[in-house]
Amino acid sequence: MAVGELRAPDVTPPVPGLRTRRGRPLGRPLVLVLGAALIAVFYLLPAAGLGQALVLIAVAGAAVAATLRAGRRAAGSARTCWLALAAALGLTAVTDASRSLAVALRHQPLAVPSWTDASFVLAVPCFAVAIGAVVLARRGADPIGDLLDALVVIVGGGGLLAAYALVPAAEHAPGSAAAHLVALAYPAADLVLLTLVVPVLVSHRVSVPLLLIGAGFLALLTGDTVHTVVITHAAVAGSRAADGFWLAAFVLFTAAALDASDGELSPDALPAGHRMANGRWGLVAGALLTGPVLLLHRGTSMLGIAVSSIVLTLVVLRLAHLNRRLTRASADAQLKNRQLRHQSMHDALTGLPNRALITSRIEWMLSRARRPGSTCAALLVDLDGFKHVNDSRGHEAGDTLLKAVGRRLTGALREVDSIGRVGGDEFAVLIDEVELSCAPELVAARIIDVLRQPFELGPDGQTVTVTATVGVAVGTREQAGDLLRDADVALSQAKAAGRNCYELFAPEMETSVQRRYELELDLRPALADGQFELFYQPIYDLEELTLVGLEALLRWNHPRRGQLAPAEFIPVLEASGQIVDVGRWVLLESCRQMARWRATGAEMMVSVNVSPRQLDRDSLVDHVREALAVSGLEPSALTVEVTETALMRNVSETARRLHELKALGVQVAIDDFGTGYSSLAYLQQFPVDCLKIDQTFIDALSRSPESDALIHTLVQLGQDLGLRTLAEGVETAAQMARLRQENVNAVQGFLFARPMTVAAIDAELGRRTRLTSPTDSAASRPTTAQPASRPAGDA
């Protein structure tokens, strides 16, 4: 484990002991009280006697035992600290005990220098290791500041020590040079150790054990200084003043080791930019007093002047360094605040403003728009098919798409317009100072157009195509939330209208949204309660007018509102995701029914519409396979109809699924052909069997030459690709005649038959399967043309 790891878990359970009512240990206060009592007893005992020696040995032994116990319980650098401290105290105890016993038993002090001085020499590096483990483990340390603190201590403390003890002792005390050198080494080493401890003690947060350890080193320094003075004056036998300080040091170390945790030896250094800690203020104040004290004691001596000047210089440097850190920390804090403000107001993925910033900008925009002649608009843009990209290609591809959409929107709009991401796949566009009433609609149309273009995802060049649905709210509101709410209502209305379009908010839309919400609630039990019913619209061969197929169309028998057309509830099913389960039921039911009709000899096929949500899932192939297996219907008798717009949502994935359907043997038809944006290059990727020409082109026949030319082009395209063509929504004999001239293969519409129930189809099959002319069935048809059922709204 590294030296700096002082927060290793303490796996040894704490030893139970006396505690206060709040659960704090009583061990340290008791140790300090008992230590003070033992020091008092020490001085009450006969001077230089055996009793004093035994007390010193007992107190030193307790310190060694306590630090060893703390080392065994600790881990990492805390263990290193306590064990090194135990070794150092043990060596120090040997030195002090040897001297005390020599005086008590032999009545003669040990010579200076002696073998006991060697144990002190060995104790110094052990103390240094213990202190180093703590210093290196400090979090957020400031090396330059620590160095300046240490220099202040060693210069100021060394000056005071020299002025008051060492210099007088060296000038006037008898004894050999070796004795003086050894005597001076004790306080000098202690001063160095204390210098190492000071940067820790003046840290911002210092634990009780560290304070006790620092006090212990100070006691050692004081005791060794007194000892040095005593030695240099040859008065060891007559004075045991130093022993009291040594005893105090052992007591302080014992209290520090008692119930200490690893974290208490890992202090937090003073954070940059934080106020200066109380300990450091004390250090600076003490350093500033060093000069006057030395000058008062030594007068104008070179020592006093030199130490005073150096200490004052170091204090100035320390304060200047602190000021630089404060300035840098202030700049860093301001930068972080700006970054946090930016992050709180911007989307992390796209970098665009988020909902909070968009709301703030709407408030500002509304305040400006309340002036005469000004207005504003908010647009909510929702990506159609984004969930499919996330599910099929992964969230990374989805994130790439969102960023690309953000860039494309930014490039397509004016610089004064605001663009933000307010939801998963929902963006907001704010238009200020709208001068023309059509401007928001033009912006919405442009957004739909630019987002319709394929997006490249990744370096492999794969593209994905999505569409956009836009809700627009124009005008002033009381609050920003009101404008966004109205845009959201318009967005819901646009989704209900089939997506890939925009809607402008109108007050009556709120009623429509409420109705939509109620429909969504009513649809949840509809499938389980058997409220859905299939109608079938006949499909005829145009040349022979033979019944060749039926298109399954879904109806909902609402328990309160009666039978509802697909346009009312299919968008709700699509938006809620229920369309997948309902579509599965439609496949099963239509295949079962067609299998029963074919069993009676009717050679027909059934067409089933597949929604974009179904087409986006691999489960579609499984559902078709299941319907064929359960019903026993021949695969060639089933046609899966897909709208042209749905094909272009994800070309590669759609093509793969359609190829899998073709592998099953079913037919594939493109519904509403001509209304989408597919090209011949894209069309050739799909395994299509039939093109269904949309009713809007059929309605325009004979009214405009352009429609006639377009019908001719669509039929010719189908013939060139080897595909059948089917015209839907045929309502007049003139339309039928014109389609015959273009060699359209099949037709369906009110001219021939409305969507019919199963019972009506049974009756029709019982009567005939061939029409000689459209007028043969006039009795069963309405006398006035009505809008045909919209296949795109059926499941």
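Next protein, fold it too.
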Amino acid sequence: MSDATVPKPRTKREAQAARGPYGRLGQAINEADDRFGVAKGGRVFLDKIFPDHWSFMLGEIALYSFVVLIATGIFLTLYYVPSSAEVTYHGVYAPLRGVRMTEAYASSVDLSFAVRCGLLMRQMHHWACDVFVGAIVVHMARIFFTGAFRKPRETNWIIGVTLLIMAILNGFVGYSLPDDLISGTGIRIAYSILLSIPVVGTYLAFFLFGGQYPGTEIIPRFYIIHVLILPVIIGGLIAAHLGLLVRQKHTQFRGRHKTEHNVVGSPMFPTFMAKTTGFLFMITAVLTLLGGLAQINPIWQFGPYQPYKISYAVQPDWYMGWLDGALRIMPSWEWTGWGHTIPFMVLLPSVVFPGLIFTICYGWPIIERYFTKDNELHNLLDRPRDRPKRTGAGAAMIGLMFTCFAASSTDVLANYFNISLNEVLWFFRIAVIVVPIICGFTAWRICLELQGVPEAGKRKRANVIIRTAAGEYTSERTEPRPGDHDEELAPEPVPTLIELEPVGVADGGNGEVDTPPGVRRVTR
């Protein structure tokens, strides 16, 4: 039947019926499919199954925190001035009027007090960064302890470690942009770290800073690195991570109907899409509340950076605390010879130590595969108790990081407990060795104990003690309470067509079935 013979709808109801059950949206999708063939690939994507376990939401916290970072960062770039040129402040914040400062610091203070919602956006941006890095760390800990990094997902693990490094670097660079007293001190430490690298350190420091410290180029260069270079790299890593996730499918915990060859959970549309959209709103709401109610990085209290000034009881953001702690407790060792000095007190804790930590992270899938001789594909996750050596190693690493993080407050601890700073330093020098050993051994022993008790960790049924009239005590075990056992739905096969078989009549005896208007049949 030609288009000329198709009767035109005379009423709105007839026009709506002609567009099919999906209306204008269905027509738009059909038009896109005519040009790009999106129906088949879109169906596969919408059919993707997501496990329902709560721990799989940790990665989404990182993803949506990054979304908030991008949104608030765009707002901040409209008002921030990345310049080291000195000006005299005459803004709305009275305590700083008449003080000489860089344009970067002056614009940051004005952004906090003279721009509507500026302080909210600054603090949301800062909190989102802390949550972003924290969510990556916790998400990777879940992957490590459950063995989700094993074959075939080693590449995604490497992408995750690289993403963590880029997030930490970008957080430090962004933290340095206001050019206040605290962030300026952090830049000075970064300059010293670069200088401590043998042979190439002076060249790296000169190229990055454009001359001797502090110079006038570091703030504009940090700005470009923070808003352009590193966000593009992070966005690309996130895209690669999600692409591999879709391609390789999700891992899942062992359970009823779960095998190495299927994924049991909720489909992308509509269940998971509704959940994850609500989760996005929840994360944004929490970050907004933190930005509005919880003060963070009050740069107006610190004042502009002056090379001859320093503050007490100020630590960097938590994700840099472990590095700061390692620098504090390192003995003042150095080597001098042939006219050169290698400052081991800076090189070892700030270059060698982080390099060793992240090298172990990168190489762990290869290390474990070498010792276990396990070359099989794994889609089912381990319980941490079932891999006591891996769990012990992870606990030792966490103990090491937390000890270094605590060491970043040595001056505060010495002052609070009224003891010598040297005593605090020696305590942490010993603890940084002892604590990881204790944590690793304890976790290993707990895993071995749990392996001997299969029901350990599950909720117990109650025992009711009854006393009879004769004074006899008897024990009676109650029935399981709701939630004592996992109740999982049986997996349902995914349909092979976008729609169920349409209701129609044979067309001209050729065996074809008439399809309702607006419905398109696409085989998988």
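About the second fold: The longest strand covers residues 463-467.
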